[in-house]
Amino acid sequence: MSSKSPSSSKAAARAAKAAELRAAQERAEKRRRLLMIGGVIAVFVLIVGTAVAVTLLSREDVEAPAAGENEYGVTIGDPDAPHEVVIYEDFVCPFCGQLEAATREELADLAAEGKVLVDYRPFDLLSGVVGDYPIRATNAFAVVLEESGAEVAKEFHDLLYEEQPSESGPFPSDDDLVDLAVEAGAEEADVREGIESLAMEDWVTKATEAAADANVSSTPTVLIDGEELTGYRSVEDLADQILEAVE
User: Fold this and answer.
1) Which range is least confidently modeled, 50-54, 121-125, 157-161?
2) What confidence tens digit (pLDDT) does each residue in 115-128 have?
3) CA torsion, points 16, 18, 24, 25, in degrees to nearest 10?
4) Are 219 and 96 in contact (CB under 8 A)?
5) Are 78 and 54 found together in one domain?
6) What is the pLDDT of residue 21?
7) Does 47 share its domain with 165?
8) Is residue 64 part of a domain?
9) Residue 44 burial (CB < 10 Å; 0-12/13-18/19+)?
10) What is the pLDDT of residue 45?
11) How far apart are CA 44 and CA 39, in angstroms?
12) What angle do CA 182, 73, 247 make, to 5 degrees?
């Protein structure tokens, strides 16, 4: 029966000690990383919380032109109706799409009955987040409005929401926008070049500036009889409040 030599025992002890030291170092490094991550998260939460607080404290009341008095949009209904609704929207905003789906038919019926004048005002809010689709879609809307008139533009507006892409894409191509415009009633020869060349991009810029001048900073922003509608709990609640106010 053999036994370990003193030298081999010392080597084993040194190896065990080294392993223990490495394990301790790894534990210390793990704690350091966790503390660092926790610190970053804490700072991030503080920054975000401060930003939200500053936004809420600095938010200005929306002061928008009355329905029908803004050239960057399309209206439906009687200008002499007893109520008016103004809706600022971005064609890629999912909440705008939900509000559109919840109110389109009812508002159209109420407008046809002479109860309300509705002014839809698309602009570019989200291109800095999702890319150029909000600009292209709003440009296409302006082209259709310019070349084919308000009735076709409103139909095109509705189709843009029916075919609304996710905020993460994929987004409709210019060909897709042309197809929707034709489906809405436009002549392809009248709108294709303007849609593909961003012929109404200046209109989009001015519509966006007009929204900013009115202190609109989110979508959808809704005004009823000149007063911004706030305090709703969901898009469904917003839709209900709009319809109840103008029926």
Assistant:
1) 50-54
2) 999 999 999 999 99
3) -160
4) yes
5) no
6) 52
7) no
8) no
9) exposed
10) 39
11) 9
12) 105
Alpha carbon distance 173, 164 (integer Å): 12
> Using one digit for the tens of pLDDT, what is the confidence trace for 3-36?
445 555 655 555 555 555 555 555 545 554 444 4
Domain assignment present for residue 105? The answer is: yes
- Domain limits at 15? 1-58
Counting the structural domains of the chain, the total is: 2
Q: How many CB atoms lie within 10 A of CB 205?
A: 15
Same structural domain for residues 129 and 215? yes
For residue 88, the SS3 value is: strand
Dist CA 247 CA 245 (whole Å): 6
Same domain for 78 and 40: no
**What percent of the chain shows pLDDT beyond 70?**
76
37 and 111 together in one domain: no
143 domain residue, yes or no: yes
197 φ, ψ (degrees, to nearest 5): -100, 5
Alpha carbons 193 and 143: distance in angstroms, whole number: 9
pTM to 2 decimals?
0.77
The CA R_g of the chain, rounded to the nearest whole Å, is 29
